[in-house]
Design goal:
With about 325 residues, the chain is mainly β. It has two domains: about 160 residues, Sandwich (Jelly Rolls), CATH 2.60.120; about 160 residues, Jelly Rolls (Sandwich). Helices cover about 5% and strands about 40% of the residues. Strands 1, 2, 6, 7, 8, 9, 10 and 12 form an eight-stranded antiparallel beta sheet that branches. The longest helix has 7 residues. The chain is globular. Pathway: Nitrogen metabolism; (S)-allantoin degradation; (S)-ureidoglycolate from allantoate (aminidohydrolase route): step 1/1.
Length: about 325
């Protein structure tokens, strides 16, 4: 299933990685109750679905985490492990398809720990109790510099949440990476992120940075059909400044809609906002000149890479439009 962007979603959902994505390693740890729907469903990256007439032994099958009706004082809660230690910039608490059974309110606390069930943990409140509505996305932008790896999600008093998406930046301990080790500096799991993109009508640019090969045509960056001069592009902040010595451009599953060509520009950016880079990136030097692409294929480049030295950002240009599944930018850590 294609993982599409909600058209009303705020900018942070387009720029930052969902650290509650099970594909990256996020996983459920504990919940007070999951009678109608297991906690793990809340971490599914695909949009929630509703299947009329589908029931299981406990009642109506729902695509999310759902607790039984509470008949006592209190609230339900869960603990999840994020895919990577991170700093968080926002949440999407999604109650899609939960109408008479949604959770009326939610709060989220966080901590950094190796034992999330320990009574000694100090949980920091990132989201105070907030009202929820049925069958809706609820976006909460937060400002936090706290490094965390677990969340405690509390619902008041009971009910269901279809999906929880936790947007932020992965915090990698580079002191534990061996000098000379080859790293994919365009991998979201290493901390790379999308800075800007001119179009992502059919597929999110952030898919370029995901692990593994694309599962289908929806699991990649795909733009609309261009009907005017120019080309499509996206800007990526690398996980760490690096000298790039090997590149992969994968058009997996893109057959009648792959780009005719691509090129890469790059630069070492010391200061500047994401907005300012949109203008600057047009003038960045070339890292890889225009190269022809083929459908449904992994393309590798090494000798084609021009010697720019250490770079922190790249601009991927596709000509004139189309879809790319993954972009890999390998280099040596030093």
């Amino acid at each position: 299933m294609a993982i599409q962007q909600d058209v009303n979603a705020p900018e942070f959902t387009r720029k930052y990685l969902n650290l509650a994505d099970a594909r990256l390693g996020a996983k459920p740890i504990f919940c007070s109750d999951q009678f109608f729907g297991p906690l793990e469903r809340m971490l599914n990256p695909e949009p929630a679905v509703f299947i009329p007439g589908k029931y299981d032994d406990n009642g109506k099958w729902m695509d999310g985490w759902e607790t039984r009706r509470k008949r006592s004082v209190g609230e339900d809660w869960s603990i999840i492990q994020l895919a990577r230690p991170c700093t968080i910039v926002g949440f999407d608490v999604d109650t899609s398809h939960f109408t008479g059974n949604y959770a009326p309110a939610v709060s989220i606390k966080a901590c950094y720990t190796n034992d999330p069930m320990s009574a000694e943990n100090e949980w920091v409140e990132l989201l105070s109790p907030q009202n929820l509505s049925p069958n809706n996305h609820h976006y909460f932008e937060i400002s936090s510099t706290v490094k965390v790896n677990h969340l405690k999600v509390t619902i008041f008093p009971d009910g269901g949440i279809a999906r929880l998406r936790v947007y932020g930046t992965a915090e990698i301990d580079w002191s534990k990476v061996s000098p000379g080790e080859e790293i994919d500096f365009a991998a979201a799991e290493n901390g790379a992120r999308i800075v800007a993109v001119n179009n992502q009508h059919f597929g999110l640019a952030s898919n370029l940075l995901m692990p593994g090969r694309g599962q289908n045509m929806g699991d990649g960056w795909e733009t609309r059909r261009r009907r005017e001069p120019g080309n499509d592009w996206c800007v990526i902040q690398l996980a760490q400044s690096a000298i790039i010595d090997r590149i992969e451009v994968d058009t997996c599953h893109f057959k009648g809609n792959y780009p005719d060509r691509f090129s890469l520009q790059a630069n070492f950016v010391q200061v500047g906002t994401d907005t300012s880079l949109i203008t600057q990136c047009m003038f960045w030097p070339t890292l890889v000149e225009e190269q022809k692409l083929e459908m449904h294929k992994q393309h590798y480049y090494a000798t084609e890479i021009l010697p720019l030295g250490k770079v922190s950002h790249v601009r991927l240009n596709i000509f004139p439009d189309g879809g790319v599944s993954r972009l890999r930018l390998w280099g040596k850590f030093n």
